[in-house]
Every structure is written in structure tokens, then in C-alpha cells.
């Protein structure tokens, strides 16, 4: 009988390390061999010597880290396996942002699936999630709480269509801003979307590699002083800086309640799974064990206490 290796992937100060293949997944600091699930800053850092990732992830990283030490990128297609020191690796769409991947690792017949960040909700701006079976599921647990329910993003974005004033919409520049642009284009077509300058290059990569046309314009101060039905997308720092902005409705798109306080309107649009989607995803994967990362797995352990072994990923100094 095949046996699961308890320390196949462990959390270290440098990131999640697989000593059997001598590589790190989503390292926190530069390493010799990095396997990167997606290009968000808490998963992708500059300076690693060899980087294995999807084409879109490489594009985003190369743009963001252009002034850093050059890495060698090994671009991998989805669903095409490659070998890294005896570990067979496959990137599988995660549905989080463009190019985001679940990382399936097969070693000595056991399938270990690292999710990275992922979502089940429909998002036309990125590859939809694909399900695969695994013996060990290594899942993020950002919102792994039965009390967390993400509402329908279409109904949420329609709230903005009901506003007659201009809107300052805070959001993350990569992934979230492109999704919001498409949702506004589709469900609030009367709204004209303006972008903060930091978002423009990332939108252009979506224009090059993405799946839908995004309609937007660079921000112009004069434009927001005239007319109505305009939405200005800004990154968190800009949103927080203009906390006393006048004559605009202040909104921040996030699944976190703490980011909705002091705003004029709540907008619960998340690019992570909620509790119900987490359970639905686990049902599709059919793991024997679950190892949790990026959050607290206490609710999962309680839910599966009579049917499945659930634990936090092991840590090594």
C-alpha cells in the first residue's frame, strides 16, 4: 500500500519546501528553484534563480520585478506535466486570477495538490478552476469559516449601477481590478471606468493574454469633475490616502468585513473561496488527508473530525 509522506511539503522561513524535489512553492525569499502558483505579492517574490510558472504569471512577475535580479523563467502550460528532481508536477487552473494555478505533485504514486489561492465563482477574466483528484489536499483557508458566505458578485456590482454620484472604487491592482472592470462593463454599462496609473500596465497584460475585452480609460482629474456615472479604480494605498475625498461614493471591493468599515457602501466581492465552496471543492477532490495553509483550519478539523485527517501543514525551522 502506498504511504503518504507527512513531510512531503513543509512550511519554512523561506516558503513551502519539498526536499524530495528540492524546490520551494511560493517562496517568501529568493531561492534556487521556485514553483510559483500566481503573481500576487504574497506568493511571488523577485530574485529566485529558476522560476517555474504559467505564461501569465511570468508576464506579471517580469513586469513587477523588472529592476530586480533576473530570473530564468520556465514557462509551463496548464495540464502539461514536467519533472523536477523526481517529482512530477502539473499546473491546473485555479480560477483566482489570470494564470493562477493549483500545483499537483506526484511522488511515489501519491498525489499531493497545493491549491494556491482559488475560487469557484465565475470570472470571465481568468481560466476557470479545474478539479482533479488527490490523496493529499494542501488548501488555503483564508475564509474557512462557516459564518463566511460570499454573495453573488453580479448582484454586488449592480449596487454601483444604482449610484448617481461618481465612485472611488478601491481594489487590488492585479486580478481584482480587471475582474471589476469586466463586471462594470457587463452589468453597469452606463458607467465609464477610469484606472489609476498603476493598474494600466496590468490591464494591458490582460488585454494581451486574457479572454474578454476590457473597456477603460486612464484617470483624468478633469473627467471626475464633470458629469456623472464614472468609476475610478484605485489601489488600496491611494484609496486610504483620499479618505476625505468629496463628491464621490467611497467603496472597497473585498471579502473582508474590516475593509468595508467607514465606506459609503459595502461591496463584498472576493477572489477566494468561502466555506460552502471549500466543502464543494473538497468533495470534488476526494482527498484522504487535508493539510491547511494561509489561515486557520480549525473549522475544517471540526467538520471532518469523524471522517478525515485534517491538520495544519508541518513547520520546519
Q: How would you portray this structure in words?
A:
Residues 30-154 form the Metallo-beta-lactamase domain. It comes from Sphingobacterium faecale. GO terms for molecular function: exonuclease activity. InterPro entries: MBL, Metallo-B-lactamas, RibonucZ/Hydroxyglut_hydro. Keywords: Exonuclease, Hydrolase, Nuclease. With 317 residues, the protein is α/β, with parallel strands linked by helices. The protein has 2 domains: 10-146 and 272-312, 4-Layer Sandwich (Metallo-beta-lactamase, Chain A); 153-267, Rossmann fold. It is 20% helix and 27% strand. It is built from 7 helices and 19 strands. The protein has helices spanning 55-64, 153-161, 176-187, 200-209, 236-241, 275-285, 298-303; strands spanning 10-12, 15-18, 23-25, 33-35, 50-53, 72-75, 82-84, 87-93, 101-107, 110-114, 136-141, 166-170, 192-195, 217-218, 230-234, 248-253, 265-267, 289-295, 309-312. The protein has a 7-stranded mixed sheet with strand order 7-8-9-10-11-18-19. Strands 1-2-3-4-5-6 form a 6-stranded mixed sheet. Helix 1 packs antiparallel against helix 4 (200-209) and helix 2 packs across helix 3 (176-187). It is globular and about 70 Å long. The two termini are 31 Å apart.
